[in-house]
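Example 218, ligand erythose-4-phosphate.
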Amino acid sequence: MKFFIDSADIQEIKKAVSMGFCDGVTTNPSLVARTGRPFKDVIRDLMEIVPGPVSLEAVSENADGMVEEARGFVGDYPDHRDKIFVKIPMTPEGMVAVRRCADEGINTNVTLVFTATQALLAAKAGASYVSPFIGRLDDISTGGMQIIEDIVRIYDNYDYDTEIIVASIRHPMHVLESALIGADIATIPFSVVLKLFNHPLTDKGIAKFLEDNSKIPE
Ligand code: E4P
């Protein structure tokens, strides 16, 4: 399973890259706003440091505007065209934009997906990625992970090429379940990546080895 880092924070993305845990990055307007930096500056840094796909969100509400934004992203970085994925919301206008982007060879990531049937629409429109938000479903007492299983099955049934990004991940169990189900990608906040390291027996084992190492005669 590929790990994308769900962040616009360049420092934490650099750390994830240095650990080999950053196969790509997803951003959204909330994550970019949190950095306090202009979007264009964030994009410039992401193009330089991320070794794989970078998702950038279009914020227009109609298809023409979304396609213009998509063309703008790839036009600004023609050498990185293949790694730019334009995030487009799951709306009727959004699916018109996805279809047009697909026809123009612009990669898309359909965002704000909350049902398996929405994911079916995204695949039929020609989306490169689909991003079901499982944490936000869990937040309203609806099993988020169940829709991942359903989407995997639907895409397998019909051989869709659209890849599934498990999004809105909140904790390590979401990562484990995504991998067990066989999702293509999990986009993970860096704080959750760090939690994946945690085990008291690892800490205890290191302390014991260090203690015993100090007893070895020179
Ligand atoms: C994914 O592409 C989204 O940016 C993200 O996963 C949303 O997560 P949230 O529900 O924690 O805001």
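Summary: The chain is about 55% helix and 15% strand.
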